[in-house]
């Protein structure tokens, strides 16, 4: 992932060479694939889901090449010849997804025949819940052909058809793995967008997108330092100071105060959104803007927790934001009544949670069980999410 390569994610790596034993039933193996809004690449996990807690057998990532990333970005706004470009992109993505599946299988020593299904999120290029649609690209038929494994994908549209946002979907998996009988917890995913799940034993599970996760920080550093993809370790932000007036202008966006259910994406939190706010604050040092954007991610999450989950005593962070020590320290400072740690403390490394969630959603589909939480997405009821492309 040039130029600030993340050695923990790329190239593909193995966390746990598996030893197949009779108690690890082949029918419990699933592959989960997540390529998220940060557009950094595809994360994969091969997991045994036969017990209540998942066991990851192999995991890793393949980065998007610059040209592929540019094509994805070019499909975010309305443009010419979209059908052709989308179809070609979906094929390219399927080939990359198949490659990451083969790497996972090879490194774990598992054959395709032992895997029940691949859960493939695809790549979001449009998210318009207010118009009743969302678009995740992936040629799922080609992926089934290339892997020889049943593929489950297109997870969001059934929830939208039932009146929901189609997102976020991971709260159901968070509930399955991370809830505690006594402690009020929040799980906060900080990818391109941020989303949280409230897991309070005394209250229903809720979840929603909090706003930008790393997306604006990524966009700003790329704008100021051509070639940079993200602010590794938050080092650049750490060299700047938060600008309270800019932070207040950013937090004034109505998205933050809107009640859940809600979800968002690049359509709202873009470089254009940032430049519109910077126009009222000319001459700021670029590093100060970066520090303010980091604080925006922190403040929007902290405000959401104060408003919707005030009893929270433990915050568990996943996604790339968990790898940013400044972001983690500022979250802890903003939430003095909470222990703040990465989901690694609960047994699932921060960078595996989302891909694992799509393996879990594939399992829910194969069992014909609902994958959504209506209280999260706003759907009129629980629905079996996804569509099957048989091997
Ligand atoms: N070492 C690091 N230091 C700082 N930030 C990092 C580091 N590694 C990753 N990130 C941030 O995490 C982002 C990727 O996170 P992740 O893979 O969780 O996002 P995603 O899954 O694409 O997005 P989403 O969850 O919104 O769909 C990068 O774009 C970068 O901003
Ligand atoms: C439309 C879309 O792809 N949304 C993503 C995005 O990235 C984070 C946040 O916004 C969340 O709503 C969702 O992803 C996760 C995996 C989810 O559905 O829970």
From TrEMBL:
ATP binds at residues 36-43. It comes from the Bacteria. GO terms for molecular function: ATP binding; kinase activity; phosphotransferase activity, alcohol group as acceptor. Transmembrane segments: none annotated. The keyword Plastid does not apply. It catalyses: 1,6-anhydro-N-acetyl-beta-muramate + ATP + H2O = N-acetyl-D-muramate 6-phosphate + ADP + H(+). Keywords: ATP-binding, Carbohydrate metabolism, Kinase, Nucleotide-binding, Transferase. Its EC number is 2.7.1.170. Belongs to the anhydro-N-acetylmuramic acid kinase family. Catalyzes the specific phosphorylation of 1,6-anhydro-N-acetylmuramic acid (anhMurNAc) with the simultaneous cleavage of the 1,6-anhydro ring, generating MurNAc-6-P. Is required for the utilization of anhMurNAc either imported from the medium or derived from its own cell wall murein, and thus plays a role in cell wall recycling. This is Anhydro-N-acetylmuramic acid kinase. The gene is anmK.
């Amino acid at each position: 992932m040039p130029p600030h390569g993340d050695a923990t994610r790329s190239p593909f790596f193995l966390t746990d060479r598996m030893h197949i034993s009779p108690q690890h039933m082949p029918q419990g193996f699933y592959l989960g694939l997540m390529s998220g809004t940060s557009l950094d690449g595809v994360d994969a996990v091969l997991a045994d889901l036969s017990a209540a807690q998942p066991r990851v057998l192999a995991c890793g990532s393949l980065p998007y090449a610059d040209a592929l990333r540019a094509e994805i970005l070019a499909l975010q706004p309305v443009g010419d010849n979209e059908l052709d470009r989308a179809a070609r992109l979906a094929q390219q993505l399927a080939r990359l997804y198949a490659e990451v599946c083969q790497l996972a299988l090879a490194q774990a020593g598992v054959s395709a025949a032992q895997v029940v299904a691949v859960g493939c999120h695809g790549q979001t290029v449009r998210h318009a819940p207010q118009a009743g649609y969302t678009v995740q690209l992936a040629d799922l038929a080609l992926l089934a052909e290339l892997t020889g494994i049943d593929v489950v994908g297109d997870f969001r549209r059934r929830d939208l058809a039932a009146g929901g946002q189609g997102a976020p979907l991971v709260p159901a998996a968070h509930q399955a793995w991370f809830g505690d009988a006594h402690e009020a917890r929040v799980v906060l995913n900080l990818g391109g967008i941020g989303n949280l799940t409230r897991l309070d034993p005394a209250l229903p599970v809720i979840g929603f997108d909090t706003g930008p996760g790393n997306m604006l920080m990524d966009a700003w550093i790329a704008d100021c330092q051509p070639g940079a993809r993200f602010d590794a370790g938050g080092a650049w932000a750490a060299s700047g100071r938060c600008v309270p007036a800019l932070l207040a202008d950013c937090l004034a966006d109505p998205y933050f105060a809107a009640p859940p259910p809600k979800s968002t994406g690049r359509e709202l939190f873009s470089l254009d959104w940032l430049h519109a706010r910077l126009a009222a604050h000319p001459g700021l040092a670029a590093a100060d803007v970066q520090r303010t954007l980091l604080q925006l991610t922190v403040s929007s999450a902290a405000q959401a927790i104060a408003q919707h989950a005030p009893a929270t005593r433990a915050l568990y962070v996943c996604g790339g934001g968990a790898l940013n020590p400044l972001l983690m320290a500022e979250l802890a400072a903003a939430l003095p009544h909470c222990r703040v740690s990465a989901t690694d403390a609960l047994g699932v490394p921060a960078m595996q949670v989302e891909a694992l969630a799509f393996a879990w959603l594939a399992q829910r589909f194969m069992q014909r069980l609902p994958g959504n939480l209506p209280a999260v997405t706003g759907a009129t009821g629980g629905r079996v999410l996804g569509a099957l492309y048989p091997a």
